[in-house]
Amino acid sequence: MSEITSSIPLQINPDLQEERDKASFNVTELTHIIYGGIEKTKKRKRLEKLLFSDPFFQEYQNVRAFGSRSEYYAASVKKSTKIFKLRRQHKWTDEEYETVLDICHDDLALTLHHTMFIPALERLATEDQKSKWLTLAKQYKIIGTYAQTELGHGTYLQGLETTATYDPQTREFVMNTPTLSAMKWWPGSLGKSSNHALVLATLIISGKKYGMHPFLVQLRSMDDHKVLPGVRVGDIGAKMGGNSVDNGYLILDNVRIPRNNMLMKNAQVSPDGKFVTRGPSKANYATMMLIRVQICTMAYQVVSSGATIGIRYSAVRRQSKLDPQDREPKILEYQTQQYKIFPGLAMSYAFLFASRSLTRKYEEAFAEIQRGDFKSLPELHCLSSGLKSFCSEHSVRQVEIIRQSCGGHGYLNAAGLGMLVNAAAPMITVEGENTVMYLQLARYILKRFAGAMSGQQLDGSTSYLSMDPATYVCPVMSETDCRNLTALCDIYRYRSYMTVCRVARQVQHDMESDMPQHVAINKNLVDLVRAAKAHSYYIVVKDFVEGVDALVASAPVIKVLRTLCCFYAAHGIAEYSGDFLESEAVGLHQLKWIKNLQVSLLGEIRPDAVALVDAFDYHDITLSSALGCYDGNAYERLFKSTENDPMNKEEVHPSYYQYLKPFMEEMNKSKL
Ligand SMILES: CCCCCCCC/C=C\CCCCCCCCCCCCC/C=C/C(=O)SCCNC(=O)CCNC(=O)[C@H](O)C(C)(C)COP(=O)(O)OP(=O)(O)OC[C@H]1O[C@@H](n2cnc3c(N)ncnc32)[C@H](O)[C@@H]1OP(=O)(O)O
Ligand SMILES: Cc1cc2nc3c(=O)[nH]c(=O)nc-3n(C[C@H](O)[C@H](O)[C@H](O)COP(=O)(O)OP(=O)(O)OC[C@H]3O[C@@H](n4cnc5c(N)ncnc54)[C@H](O)[C@@H]3O)c2cc1C
């Protein structure tokens, strides 16, 4: 009788325990640093316990893995309502609620209500409107979404075709999506869940257009959820990932809403149809900026989740031979495996520090904006656009590399990596497609560079553009200098400077050659994006170096983070060596030393790899991965996961009786 069972051993896989025993630092200390202190770690643990003591969260994993789209959506609505109820019951603060979203990896059907609808009301509504709509939204008496993108336009907001035409006779707006391409298309939680939507539409008064403004539109009856007259709404179909969310379409046909349903914090329409605006013209774009900042944090969560799975699995998987006399090694011993996974590990910590720094800047600027001071807005818009693009692009790419590094098992849903890649992929597109956002940053950098050239003293993230390039000497003079974090940061800064300088001069040259500005810009778009990427890379490295330098922690924790930071910077130089050489930020000697360092750091990180991902402290249910579980019993968990597979419900699948049996009978009878 076979001894193979699907029970999970109670003990930790010894291969994983061995890794934990040899860590050079205290994992709990690093966990507290990651979560902002011991109290926050404790609070998160309390919330995890509260959530995951409910068996529903375990069952939810099965529906997600094996249910139909409709079952998955229904389970996710249930999950959303459970969490909303708990939020009210326990009077969670916004911060506690954010923590719950992180713990759940946020695949909530009703996610848009909290991530965009409420923040948009907070930013775009007047105090009077807030006391009505925001209160209702926070009490879940209305459920809403943010409906901006249309079938024909997502990026180019001036091209949006939805109209809100003011009728002074009735003091109402008449909402229309007049063409096929005007229908709203994509908004999350729109198709089936929301009964209200914040619709972004072009305001028209007496035939004149006044730009894009937000309008609160009721879509469904509050009694029976039926769609209201003049409204057509539905789900846009299955996606690559994120299928718990009902991204929807919306057609509006002469839907009338009261004048007060235009959110009027930034612009007002008086009862007699006078338009008045205050603040900058882009004030209505505020919600998008908030989410761009949050996407950087999500990118950290995505890549750190991927690194946790990849590293734990690589520590328990044994394959092939290194020493012919020895047993098969853990695949984590292979230098190539480290080379595939450790960049994601280092990136996790880089993005942790960068997203923290960006969030702090956002909060400071937001407080100023609330006081009517908009001076930080352009810098924040460009910084958040660049970092949103950089962090999403790099994290999604890195998690896919980690998925591949797990061999065949990485391809199984039970590994959790495919789902992670597919769920995270839209970070590249949402809240401004990455190329477009990089170009927003490039436009800002070019202006700042021109300012610096004309003698302006720059401040903020672009202050380095006033440097005198003639004073630059590569700060790496010897192989040991390569470990100097400030020197590595200087190399990134100079590479960015030169990349910006080159494209700025090229654009200027093209325009002086009588090329129209838009032609000159389009001719240089690739290099403009390159400049924005170089600037973003510099900012991330700088934030990482400064974050580690400012840390108050034990020597072993600082040492391991400095090693990771050094690896992150060295790896980037090696990976984009062409750019660094071309900009003369490094010479061939320095490049060789840095590449040597990059590879030798793999061996230095290796003994702490498991401890460094343990420090992220992800709950098994959060990670949702047979390969990445804390106990390292990957094979048992893979086998266990097959129990829930509906394919294994019956010994003989119904398709046998329907198709295979008659086919076999026919074949057996055949004389051919
Ligand atoms: C959701 C929570 C999740 C939590 C996760 C927790 C854990 C996760 C871990 C693991 C699990 C895996 C899952 C991962 C999660 C992945 C989830 C992904 C889904 C998230 C769902 C999000 C919902 C998405 C919502 C949306 O997408 S809403 C729609 C967003 N749309 C856009 O962003 C449109 C982009 N376009 C624009 O912003 C603009 O049109 C433009 C391109 C910037 C140009 O603007 P335009 O007005 O047309 O241009 P100009 O007139 O030329 O003006 C330019 C001028 O304005 C300045 N400007 C532009 N924008 C701003 C601004 N926002 N603020 C300030 N200034 C601005 C610009 O700089 C120019 O200035 P100058 O003229 O001075 O140069
Ligand atoms: C999962 C998901 C959830 C979403 N949720 C919401 C939501 O809740 N609410 C909402 O309103 N929207 C939502 N969206 C829509 C999203 O905001 C848009 O898809 C996004 O802004 C990109 O716009 P687009 O689709 O028009 O892309 P396009 O602009 O059509 O991009 C296509 C290509 O054209 C290029 N391009 C476009 N313009 C330029 C330019 N000026 N210069 C150079 N290249 C350019 C882009 O780089 C890209 O390669 C969601 C989308 C997804 C995928």
Please tell me how large the radius of gyration is. Answer: 27 Å
Query: How would you sum up the global shape?
Result: globular
For the biggest sheet, the summary is: 6 strands, mixed
Number of strands: 11
What is the rounded distance between the termini?
Answer: 42 Å
CATH class of the largest domain: Mainly Alpha
Class by alpha and beta content: alpha+beta
Total helix count?
A: 23
Sequence stretches where pLDDT stays below 50 over 5 or more residues:
none
Give me the CATH superfamily of the largest domain: Butyryl-CoA Dehydrogenase, subunit A, domain 3
Please tell me the overall pLDDT.
96
Catalogue the ligands.
ligand LGZ2M252, flavin-adenine dinucleotide
Proper CATH architecture of the largest domain: Up-down Bundle
DSSP strand content? 5-15%
Number of structurally distinct domains: 3
CATH names the topology of the largest domain as Butyryl-CoA Dehydrogenase, subunit A, domain 3
Percent helix, as a range, is 40-55%
Domain Acyl-CoA oxidase C-terminal: 485-665
GO biological process, one term: lipid homeostasis
Organism: Pinctada imbricata (Atlantic pearl-oyster)
Cofactor: FAD
